[in-house]
Amino acid sequence: MNSKRDQELLCDYAERGSEEAFAELVRRYADFVYSAALRMVGNLDLAQEVTQAVFVALSQNARPLSRRAVLSGWLHRTAQNLAAKTVRAEVRRRAREQEAAAMNENAFSGIEPVWERIAPYLDEALGRLNAVDRDVVLLRFFERRSMQEIGRIMGLSEAAAQKRVTRGVERLKSIFVARGITASSVLIASALSAHSVKAVPAGLAASLAATALSGGTAGVGTTVAILKLTSMTKLQVGIVGAIVVASVVTPVVIQHQTNARHRAERAALQRQLAEQISELDRVRGENQQLAKLAENQRLSKPNADGEELARLRRQQSELLRLRGEVGVLRETNQELRELNSAFLRTAFYSKHPGDSNGTVPATVVQEAVQHTAAESRVPSRPINRTFEAGQLQDVGNDSVESAAQTALWAILNRDRQGFDRIGFVDTNAPPLSDERQADRLDFPAEMLEGVHDVTLQSWKPDPWRDDEATVRFKTAWPDDSQAVDKPAAGSLTLRRVGDAWYLQGFGFQSRGIRPGTKAEAQTGLSY
Asked: Do the strands 500-509 and 468-476 form a parallel or antiparallel pair, or are they unpaired?
């Protein structure tokens, strides 16, 4: 197993589900991926999460990656993308925690005055609630039950229990407002959580059960004891006195034991508080580290903006060049029209040598135009096949449909070798720069990054030549809110060389633009 190449191990895992092959890949690249992730995120826990996510992505893309010559490049790029997403998510989470902590601090600063105002009227207000609202309020704030426990007791879902508690607090608020007490629902709920239940005095809890159990027979027992006491001897009186002393001492001993237990519980709570303070200090340190990392990313953003501006300028230059080529094509089209007119005149004179006025009859011209239009109306050929992003494969380029699927596979997987193999550049066109050569794959890969599935709709041959065709496709995204700047559809221009079809160009349709309009052509990019 150690002697096999990475591509062989990926094939074993993709085709036969070999866990040993995948474990060998993990052994080879775990240190490499973890080190890169640790440098990027600067946190041990986050680096472990990124490393695990990278190898999950490797298992999901094993089949297309088996044709990749160098696996470490894909692993590093994937680790970089996932690390950036993880850092952004962690920064947002820390910000939400800090905001929630600040809100809680502001809320609890006003608990004491609110409790002093609502305490005299609390029990009356609870009595005015209906049975269901009163039960959920008591379970939540007096018995310290969670929403899940309240839902289970009341036969409700967790969300319904939350709504019941919120409605109960709102009704308490309205009762207090009628009493002239103004406070928000948050402050009322916080005051109830902090002060609604007080600990029973020491010793009272121990004697409550005994007193309650003996209370039912207290009256009868007292009368009988008095009658018996009059007939007791001195010895019996002494025994009864000892019992009375024992009955006095026993509660004192129980109270002492209860106090000792309370002291132990207080010490345990103090230790828990110290641990929570230590955890809070650790979280604050991580927040500071993440804030520095976010600041570094913000400071590095101008460089990224400069690179994006340079790329846009290169695209603008390319657009101007293409517009110049369109002007040349228009002139060529005019020349073809003139040649066609000359051809019509020559054909007409050859059939009518006696006509010397130099004018071709309109009927002849109309017949030629209708013949040309009939040849140009070539119907589209439907495909209507939907592929998820992970289902696209390298299926060769023997036909228009297979070449289109292979081109989309190479774009989505950023497989530069496969893209260069399916790509075709006209030898008569001016040579591309190195930056433009790199953009051939990076631009469509960025446009289609994150797509859920692609539907090949139809393809149409070029009406003027039989070695070109255009394939239209439609895209679908996991979340519409994230696909605002993503293309809704696109097209691939293919050219046949020999018995194979090659990618000649591509274009993307922005959202809200009807297919086939002039606006769609302006959003495309060809090479």
From this structure: unpaired
Beta bridge partners, 506, equal: 492, 525
Task: Report the distance separating Cα 63 and Cα 386, nearest Å.
Answer: 19
Question: In whole angstroms, what is the distance from residue 438 CA to residue 310 CA?
Answer: 14
Summarised one tens digit per residue, pLDDT across range 381-392 is: 888 889 988 889
Give me the numbers of helices (H) and strands (E) for the chain, helices first please.
18, 5
Q: Where are the domains of the chain?
A: 6-108, 111-195, 232-376, 378-523
CATH node for 111-195: 1.10.10.10
Phi first, then psi, for residue 196 (nearest 5°) are: -70, -30
pTM for the structure as a whole = 0.30
Q: What is the arithmetic mean of pLDDT over 476-499? A: 80
Is the Cβ–Cβ distance between 489 and 512 less than 8 Å?
A: no
DSSP single-letter state for residue 433:
P
Comparing 17-21, 86-90, 178-182, 320-324, which segment has the lowest mean pLDDT? Answer: 320-324
466: amino acid identity, one letter: D
The rounded radius of gyration (Å) of the Cα atoms in the chain is 41
Contact (Cβ atoms closer than 8 angstroms) between residue 130 and residue 136: no
Q: Which CATH architecture has domain 378-523?
A: Roll (3.10)
Nearest residue to 126 via CA among 168, 160, 74, 166: 168
What distance in Å separates the CA atoms of residue 245 and residue 237, rounded to the nearest whole number? Answer: 12
Q: Report domain 6-108's class.
A: mainly alpha
φ, ψ of residue 232 to 5 degrees: the values are -80, 150
Q: What does the angle CA 288 – CA 293 – CA 298 come to, to the nearest 5 degrees? A: 120
Query: Which helix (H) or strand (E) segment is 213 a member of?
Result: helix 204-215
> How does pLDDT run across 119-171, given as a tens digit for each residue?
898 899 899 999 999 999 999 998 989 999 999 999 999 999 999 999 999 99
Separation of alpha carbons 161 and 168, rounded Å: 11
